[in-house]
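User: what does the whole thing look like in 3D?
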Amino acid sequence: MKVVLRIALGIIAAIGGFVDIGDVVFNTQAGAQFGYELLWAVPIGVVGITVYAEMSGRVAAVTRRPVFDVIRTRLGLPTGLVVLVASLFVNVLTLSAEIGGVALVLQLFFDAPFTLFALLGALGMVTIIWFTPFEGLERLFGYLGLALFVFVAAALHEHPDWHSVGGGFVPEAKSSTLYWYFVVGLIAAALMPYEVYFYSSGAVEERWTPNDLLVNRLNAVVGYGIGGLLSLGLMVAAAQMFAPAGVVPDHLGTVPLLAQIPYGEAGLVLALLGMLFAIGGAAVDASFAASYSIAQFAGWEWGKYRRPSGAPRFTLAWLVFFALGLGILMTGIDPLELTEYSVVLSVVALPLTYIPVLLIARDRTFMGEHANGPVARVLGWLYMVILVVVAVAAIPLLLATNAGGG
Amino acid sequence: MRCVVQIVVLAACLLCAGCGPLDRGELSRGVETLSAVAAESQLVADGVAQDRTRATYTRVHARTLAEDAAHEAEKLADASVAPGIERQRDRAVAIAQRLDDTIGTMETHPGDERAGVQVHKELTGIADDLDQLGQRLVQGL
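Assistant: Here's the predicted 3D structure for the full assembly of 547 residues, as structure tokens:
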């Protein structure tokens, strides 16, 4: 039971990172438009984030240094500053989109003006974060977000054609730019930098030591594995229920239909609850990731395990980021468009985020006997190549497909 | 300097792309968008007809879908049209307005099973009309 409770960090990082507002819609759109053809992109993202989360958690456990600390050390102050500014920009956009997602789900539950729910949602999350310890946040958002498993159940309930599902895991070379836009988006969304900022800082918050390396590995594999399974569930369910009907899911409110069709009102409520907590968890991830980054870069006291008075600038930072996120939302921008742009823009920062992690995780002077072994080394470099390709392709594909609009 | 000029020209081309009159392909895409809205609305109406959904969810989501239909109707109605497809454009606008009105019924009666059945029936008719219009556009009729 203790081990189950200790993998909560991986679960919240994965639920918040994999199945945030953008992913929920993106995976559903992929299934609705391409059937099972894009399933292969999900495991590529899952293995990538598992490899790098495990590395960043291991570095944090052995050296007590989270990712942004490592970035500053390895890349130097000027490059580190560029990464900081870029990551803060993307994190605030993401946070804004997630607050918008929470507001949209609350609206689907209670029907009141969006701006009111955006305000109440942001205030509610700030209150929860203020009064709940780090472990409590992980468990609240991570475990309640697991209600999203209703989509996996829905996919199974509709009896998928397993032969076609299996075929979806074999990559196909297609000439459609929209197809490649989705491939890049699915891989990038799985590897959003804020996930490792949050994960590695969370490892420090939980005071991991080299004795916790098994827990780290379990967190990375089980947590991100669950995130990947949920992504696959959404895509398979959409391929079965939306693709034949000709539905193009452009709204967050379309997604719960996947659970309502097989399970009626109970399925609908479970889907909405899962989305509320998963997207809320993503808001926590994004706000903390931004605050961790700036605090670690500037050398401030940081950590949720400290009282607000013990880390005042860190506390002020996440409060300010919430206010900024809410402010952006109040301009009337569509949260879904916002998250789509934040995913694609963050792709450009991917190599800069992950290369320092890879370099320090293989460095025996820092890591001693816990440095990367042959498997982590090969996978690390393989994924670095994938990240560079994805980073180069992202912006042209965004423009060529009119941000997925075709 | 030459590079900057090239980037500016490229950006201007991208911005101007699609600025001309509405052609057959763009009208087809508009009809496809309306078909997708009709298909999704049928799923929502099905939930209402079978009493397998929540009234609040139906009301909010139906409002969003009706806005999509109304937005598409306005977009098509406001566009200048390439010669030869004026009638098809007008037909698409008329269907989009019918779609908006029909989905609006669900917004007003989100918990009424009989209304759900009726809306579903009307949406099936609208989907058929859109299908026919789409096929005629593809065939160049």
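In plain terms: Helices of chain B lie at 2-16, 24-49, 55-78, 86-108, 113-139. Chain B touches chain A through 24 residues (CB under 8 Å).
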